[in-house]
Amino acid sequence: LDSARTSLRQKSASPAAVSRDTLLEHFLKVCDAIAYAHAKGVIHRDLKPANIMVGSFNEVYVMDWGLARLIAGPTDDSPDNLLSDPAAVDNSTLNSTSGQAAGDAGHRHTRLGEVLGTPRYMAPEQAAGANASLDERSDIYALGLILYELLSLRKARPQGSLETLLENARRGVLPPLQAPAPDLSIAAELRAIVATATAVTPAQRYPTATALADDIRHFLRGEPVSVLPDSLLRKTQRWIGRHRQATLLMLMGIVMIALGATSLSLYQRYVVLEQAQRQKAQLSRFVTGFADQKDRIEKQFLLFSTLLEDLVATAAATRLYGMPTADPIFTLEDYRTLDSGPPDLYPASRYANNVISIDYPVAFISHDAQPNAIALLRQLTPLRHQFRRIALMSADASIGYLDPAAARQLIAEQGVPLHWSYIGLEEGVLLLYPGTAISSLPQDYDPRQALWYRQALADQDGRFCGSFRSDSLGEGLLLSCHSVIRDEARHPLGVAGVDIPLDYLIDTLLRWPEPNIIETFLLDSDGHIMIRSSDYQQHDQQTRSVEGPLYNVPEVLANLRQGRFGHFETERDDQPLWIVYDDIASLGWSYVVEFNPAD
């Protein structure tokens, strides 16, 4: 913070090490550390910038745990009941009877009567001496003040006497959050995050440090945050690890109650305990695998979304500012007459041995296209490079370019997740990649009247993912995702889309080698089944409805609709059934796994 303030005073460009995003990343590490401490039942009670250190390799340390104590521990804050002796940590401790500082007069660290901590960073309840009621939210208040200073590069509570600082802390008085310079600004999302974290009433603050960190991460990714009043968001989700710990404790409690209530022989008790231990280990392994698989799904769909938005951005720029080129345009008729098709036509096994081009998309002009359609297609010919790039990167995000032979082998023979990508424009033209002679495309086809085009335009965010159709070249069902192409005034120019084979999603993301897995699902926000692992290689010949059947466990369905995620135990056909469910934020869907814990 001092380096950032120095750069601001000198009106020089902030080094990367003290940029806002870098400081926020450091702050996230602090939140993660405090979240870990809270999960272990410990609150810090003296969080402040002076207790945070950043190492040479950007490692972050939260220091000075001298005032930390257990949340549910003794309320007597004598040295014996603190996690360590405060006087051994900071020599600025106040005398509990005289109130005189033994060290620094800057109120860096105080202990006055029952008031413990640093007044400048105290929560109101901490400044009031209500030590028995302190919990995680008191630390969250201090985190909010640190975030305040990180954003404004000013002290959240200006210098003053000890009595003034304590009174302002008790009342929760803070000056308005201001940008550090007139030419800088603080986003509304960050203002809302600070306001929530520093709410005077603990119940109005973030419930956990993880929830605070999640909103920061959402902001850094350009996503909505949970505390902005006018946003349409679900409630902050609890991480599955928290539910896992509660579940394990619950199982252990059930075992102990069963052992205490039973009059079975020692051998029977041993059998019950041994079985419970096996189930506990089994559940731990299952939940760990669930979390890993959910992370893979999240990352994969984030990649698909990023590639689609890259295509949208490139298409918009090319449509608005591109110049016509001399590159050839190959229409559907050219592909059907091989002599006039692209020079790289190749029979592709992943496209039912139909000939395709990985260098050129197929161009289609509707019967009532605008007169400038041909000129527009010449303007769009450079998009062929972007089409190939996102196809390659969907298989491996590190691939930006491959030589033609290697690219043909990957796309045509091995296959890539983005099986098709395409752009339809308001002028009535369509570009489809890879280029091929689509026999199912009628002569009077108009992309502007297609279901995928109209669904994307009708969606509030201009993005739509969840329609299924049967691939005309035999790949089976395809999941289609679309995004609207807009100009700078937000007027629609067209729609870009990608199609992903359902079998790829199931085989890569939903199937994992856990022998007791019954079935895995992806559900939409209303609980309809979008994808299930049993759909693998079910090559229906008709387009599937966007809205599948509702998931058939009412308790889980009710929790999903209320934005709650976790673990549920039930029975099916007289067999135990465990269900774990969590959200996939990049899709707005939920991931559900059914597991049989039986040996």
Give structural notes.
This protein is α+β, with helices and mostly antiparallel strands. The chain has 4 domains: 235 residues, Transferase(Phosphotransferase), domain 1 (Orthogonal Bundle); 43 residues; 207 residues, 2-Layer Sandwich (Beta-Lactamase), CATH 3.30.450.20; 83 residues, Beta-Lactamase (2-Layer Sandwich), CATH 3.30.450. The chain has 16 helices and 20 strands. A 6-stranded antiparallel beta sheet has the order 9-11-10-15-14-13, with helices on both faces. A 5-stranded antiparallel beta sheet has the order 17-16-20-19-18, sandwiched between helices. Strand 14 and strand 15 form a beta hairpin. The protein is globular, with a radius of gyration of 30 Å. 38% of the residues are buried. About 9% of the residues have low confidence.
What topology does this entry show?
Elements: H1 2-9, H2 20-39, E1 42-43, E2 52-54, E3 60-62, E4 69-70, E5 110-112, E6 115-117, H3 124-127, H4 136-152, H5 162-171, H6 188-197, H7 209-220, H8 240-261, H9 266-321, H10 332-336, E7 346-348, E8 354-357, E9 362-365, H11 373-380, H12 383-395, H13 404-414, E10 420-425, E11 429-433, E12 435-436, H14 451-458, E13 463-470, E14 477-486, E15 492-501, H15 502-510, E16 517-523, E17 529-532, H16 554-561, E18 566-572, E19 575-584, E20 589-595
Antiparallel strand pairs: 1-4, 2-3, 5-6, 7-8, 8-12, 9-11, 10-11, 10-15, 13-14, 14-15, 16-17, 16-20, 18-19, 19-20
Helix pairs in contact: 2-4, 2-7, 4-6, 6-7, 8-9, 9-12
